[in-house]
Write a structure and sequence with these properties.
Mean pLDDT: 91
Oligomer: single chain
Helix content: over 70%
Low-confidence stretches: none
Order of helices and strands: HHHHHHHHHHHHHHH
Strand content: under 5%
Distance between the termini: 55 Å
Number of strands: 0
Largest sheet: none
Amino acid sequence: FVQGYLVGLMFWTGPSLGCRSLLVIHHLSGGQWGLVTRRIWEAAAKTTPLMLVLFVPLTFGLPHVYQWAQPALVAADPILQHKAPFLNAPFWIARTVGMFAIWTSMAWLLARWSQQQDADRSGALDSRFQKLSGPGLVVYGLTVSLASIDWMMSVDPHWFSTIYGFVMMAGNGLVALAFTVIVLALLGAEAPLRGVVQPRHIHDLGKLMFAFVMLYAYLTFSQFLIIWSANLPEEIPWYLKRFTGGWEYLMFALIIAHFALPFLIMLSAEVKKNLSRLTWIAGLLFVMRFFDTVFQVGPQFNKVLTVNWTDIAVLAGMGGLWVAAFAHFLRGRPVLPVHDPCFSQVLATDHGAH
């Protein structure tokens, strides 16, 4: 149960962190490309306190998922003893709480300023978003890299990859974009988004999702190529475990459905401009992000690919709580930031008329 709980926790933390990163990138770069989806990202980013609460049960089951939390194994393993000052339960919990405090503070601060911007037409708050988002993006990169080590890489404490933090960041961005497209498809048929969301807005999201598909594939293949060619005994077993026991079939499914198929379909500009078609691709990527999380964590616990009913129950239960929190935060705000200085550009049609 605890192993399945970790997989569900890692999957649903992804949209929270990924949407927060897209939000700060939008504030940092400016423009209209993220204005129709800004409220979606703000609502998703505000779910980070929920994920911290959901981390609490995991702290009681650390020995069931992490070898460094088992004193008997640590006493018999010189490598674990060497890493003990960093990989120990109190310090691990303190780092997790600290990272969530940083993410939550920034998400709620940006959302608070955004709410004040809704009531203030003077533009006095406009510069605050960019000033916070620059350092915030750097802090996000550092903290997510640390989180990838603590939560996922340390499941196998003998293995390491210097690119793993980037892999996790790219995965978070990809699942966040897929979720954004799905929500936009649900909201786009209703007022006030109906008629406001133009094909060019969908095209922007499609191009960004296409870029993240390629980025994630590039990073994961680079990691595999470097480790496989080096063939070091402390690195290569991570992949050897995933080449047997049915895990190789999941790996091939990820290559096809997580990269090759979406990549080939999204080569077409028409697909990236069509919301209904793009939603199907987003749905496929959203599902495959879960299976990729299973692929990252599962082989450390099971030599043979297995699916337990508790894994599905945990995934659905966490998903229900997460979606409920997201809907609550989204429902409490205007769905469009009409006082953003770039918002008038959003109302222009694809033919240039307002």
